[in-house]
Amino acid sequence: MKETEINFNVQLDENHIPEKIIWAAPDGGVVSAESKAILLSVWDDKVKEALRIDLWTKEMPIDEMKRFFHQVLHSLGDSYQRATDEEEIAEEIRKFAEYFADRSGIKM
């Protein structure tokens, strides 16, 4: 069995607010990359619920955060389709992502 690692290092200020996020995924070619935000979800099979880690730095502008959420929402539709093969529901998720883009003022 092969193992791989994905690492996140978060530098915090004196109030425990993220100042810098560095991540690495060596098997994916990412050695030490800086990011302004992380939205990470894991499935807890024991309690049957999603657990989340949502972090962003003080330097993450609101307009970039809106774009980040739009792209995450859209990719959730793609992931849902790959996981369930339910194209119709996946398309509804992607439609919501476009609605979100329109309502949040980021749609070009």
Quick tags:
three-stranded antiparallel beta sheet; 108 residues; 2 helices; 2 domains; alpha+beta; globular; Motility-assoc_prot_GldC
Question: Topology of this protein?
Answer:
Elements: E1 7-12, E2 18-25, E3 30-35, E4 37-44, E5 49-56, H1 62-84, H2 87-103
Antiparallel strand pairs: 1-2, 2-3, 4-5
Helix pairs in contact: 1-2
Characterize the structure shown.
The protein is an alpha+beta fold and 108 residues long. The protein is built from 2 helices and 5 strands; from the N terminus they run E-E-E-E-E-H-H. The protein has 2 domains: 1-59, no CATH class; 61-108. The protein has helices spanning 62-84, 87-103, and strands at residues 7-12, 18-25, 30-35, 37-44, 49-56. The protein has a 3-stranded antiparallel β-sheet, with no helix packed on it. The longest helix has 23 residues, at 62-84. It holds the Pfam family GldC-like. InterPro entries: Motility-assoc_prot_GldC (IPR019854).
The number of helical runs is: 2
SS content category: alpha+beta
Count of domain modules:
2
User: Gyration radius, to the nearest Å?
Assistant: 16 Å
Protein name: Gliding motility-associated protein GldC
Pfam families: GldC-like
InterPro entries: Motility-assoc_prot_GldC
Q: Brief overview, please?
A:
This is Gliding motility-associated protein GldC. The chain is α+β, with helices and mostly antiparallel strands.
